[in-house]
Amino acid sequence: MAGTELFGTIEMVDVFLAMAITIVIASFVSLYRGIEGPGIFNRIIAVNVIGTKTIVLLVLIGFIYERPDFFDIALLYAILNFIMTIAATRY
Amino acid sequence: MSDTTTITNVLTVMFLLIGAFFMLAGTIGFVRFPDFYSRMHATGKCDTLGEGLMLVALIIYGGATFVSVKILFLIIFILLANPTSTHAIAKAAYDVGLEPWRKLDDEVVWLNAGNGDTDNTGNTSEGRTREDGGEVR
C-alpha cells in the first residue's frame, strides 16, 4: 500500500498530505468564528466543526504514516465529540 | 503499476477533491453567513457530506481490509451523530430565544417602494438592530 504512484512522480502520500494541509487551513478559518463569533452557540458549533474535521485529519494521518492505531483514535474522537456537543447543549 | 491500481488511485483522488471542496465551501459559509442558524445550515450539511466523501475515498484506497471496516463504522457513526448534534444545538439556541435573521427594515422599505407604501420608514437602521431591540447574532 505504500508508495503507490499516481502520475509520474506524484505519489498518493503527497495527495493525502495536501488534503491534510487543506483540512488544517479550514480548521483555522473555522477557529476565527470560534474566537470572534458573538454568543456561545457560535463557539459551540465551531468546536463541533473543528472536531469533525479532526476526525478526517486523524484518518489521513493514519494513512500517511501507515499506523492503523489512528483509526481507533478517530473512532474514539468521534464518540467524544458527539457526547461533548450533546452535553453542552443539554446544559 | 497495473491498470486496477491506476483506476483506484484516480477514484481516490476524485473523491478526496470533491470532499475537500465541500469542506471548504462549508467553512466559507460558516465564516461569511450573517446568522447563527444560517451558519449552522452551512456547516451541518457540508461537513457531513465532505467527511463522508473523504472517508469513502480512503475506503477505496485501502481496499477490503479490516481497516476499511473501521472506517465504514466511522462513516455510519458520523452520518448518525452529526445531524443529531446539529439539531440539538439548533433546538437549544431556539429554546434560549435566539431569533432568526431577517432582512433589515430599510431593505423592506426599498422593496415596497413601488407600492407607494412608505409608512414603515420610522425605524430604519441603526446598524443591525431590529425593531424589537433583539440583536442579530
Give the gist of this structure.
The complex is a heterodimer of chains A (about 90) and B (about 140). Chain A is built from 3 helices and 2 strands, in the order E-E-H-H-H. Chain A has about 90 residues and is mainly alpha-helical.
Flag low-confidence runs of chain A.
none
Q: Give the CA-based shape of chain B.
A: elongated
Binned, the helix content of chain B reads 55-70%
pLDDT < 50 stretches of chain B: 115-133
Q: What's the order of the H and E elements of chain A?
A: EEHHH
Write down how many β-strands of chain A occur, each being a DSSP E stretch of 2 or more residues: 2
Into which percent range does the helicity of residues of chain A fall? over 70%
Oligomer: heterodimer
User: What is the structural class of chain B?
Assistant: mainly alpha
Main sheet summary of chain B: none
How far is it from the N-terminal to the C-terminal residue of chain A, by CA? 46 Å
- Largest sheet geometry of chain A: 2 strands, antiparallel
- Can you count the helices of chain B? 4
* Count of DSSP strands of chain B: 0
Rg of chain A, Å, rounded: 16 Å
Topology overview:
The complex is a heterodimer of chains A (91) and B (137).
Chain A: E1 5-7, E2 10-11, H1 12-36, H2 40-65, H3 69-90
Antiparallel strand pairs in A: 1-2
Helix pairs in contact in A: 1-2, 2-3
Chain B: H1 3-32, H2 36-62, H3 66-96, H4 105-111
Helix pairs in contact in B: 1-2, 2-3
Description:
The complex is a heterodimer of chains A (91) and B (137). Helix content of chain A is 80%, strand content 5%. Chain A has helices spanning 12-36, 40-65, 69-90, and strands spanning 5-7, 10-11. In chain A, helix 1 runs antiparallel to helix 2. Chain B is mainly α and 137 residues long. Chain B has 4 helices and no strands. Chain B has helices spanning 3-32, 36-62, 66-96, 105-111. The chains are: A mainly alpha (91), B mainly alpha (137). At the A-B interface, helix 1, helix 2 and helix 3 of A face helix 1, helix 2 and helix 3 of B.
